[in-house]
Amino acid sequence: MKKVATFLIFQLILFSTWVNASNFPSKPLTLLIGFDRGGTVFTQAETLAEVLTDILNQPVTIQLRSGLGGGIAAAMVAQSQSEGYIMLFTPSIPITNAPHTKPAFEVDDFRYVGAISEDQSALVTYSDAPFSNWTEFIDYARQQDEILYASQNLTDRHFINVIAEREGLNIRIIPVSGGAGMTPLVLGKDVHLAFSGGTHNRYVDSGQMKVLASVSVNRLSEHPHIPTLQELDYGIGTQSLRILAVPKNTPDDQFTILTNALKQAVEDPRLIQVIHDVIRHPVIFMGESELTQFIIDERSQYVDLLSKIENEN
Asked: Among 14, 48, 150, 249, which one is least packed by beta carbons within 10 Å?
């Protein structure tokens, strides 16, 4: 009789565990982003949250924790114990290109649900700036006492410093939070040059901005005639994907449900329309295995690049 009772208790524990797993999510979820309203990350996140709400049958609410080029939000998710109930939506740069000394988190502090689009990182200026291409900008910049530059993250700061060193420019860096912080400075002609992860596309269309160089390793899908920084012989460049990540303690069953939900979301016309037509990024889907390897590879390449820059200086 004692054995039967023990067996029944064991079965009840297993059943309870299965019910809890199969009920995920049983409460609202949080989508954390590290950039302010008005940029492409927030625009994309709004629709992603809406679509995931419909798929998961639970509210997915957005929380903003801007700062350190998305690093504050990434650190919060890395340190969270909320498992799959908190998700980080971010460009991959804050993770792959985090400071390599005393980092707030490591690459393996996350599980990577998937990537849904590719960033279109560029160096931009206002439409009637007194230079029309990169060569003209460098000629102009050499004649100025100081060039004001709007920076969104540590990566583009490293890059502009490499360029300034190579070209003999005096650059004053003005940190901003995402495209929402960059845009008014460029449109107001308060900076000569700015980094953009994709917000520029809508303003190029309206004739308010122009693109001078691609920061991405590839040419920009919307501006294929614009050279990359690698093609301009600076030996620098990066690749960034828009990704969904969760804390590393997220159980397999929750992770699988979120992965399947993201796969469905990328096929939803609402999200496709925002990615393709509004923020104008290439739509992709990259699953956990491939994305994790991408993150590891990009991190390694960035550390190598920093070492090379430090050695050259």
From this structure: 14
Residue 58, domain member (yes or no): yes
pLDDT digits (tens, 9 = 90+) for 209-258: 999 999 999 999 999 999 999 999 998 998 999 999 999 999 999 999 99
Q: Can you give the CATH number for the domain in which 304 is found?
A: 3.40.190.150
Query: For the chain, how many structural domains are there in total?
Result: 2
**153 is in which domain, residue-wise?**
122-214
Q: Is residue 56 part of a domain?
A: yes
Query: Could you tell me which of 252, 222, 246, 31 has the C-alpha nearest to residue 118?
Result: 222
Q: Is residue 112 part of a domain?
A: yes
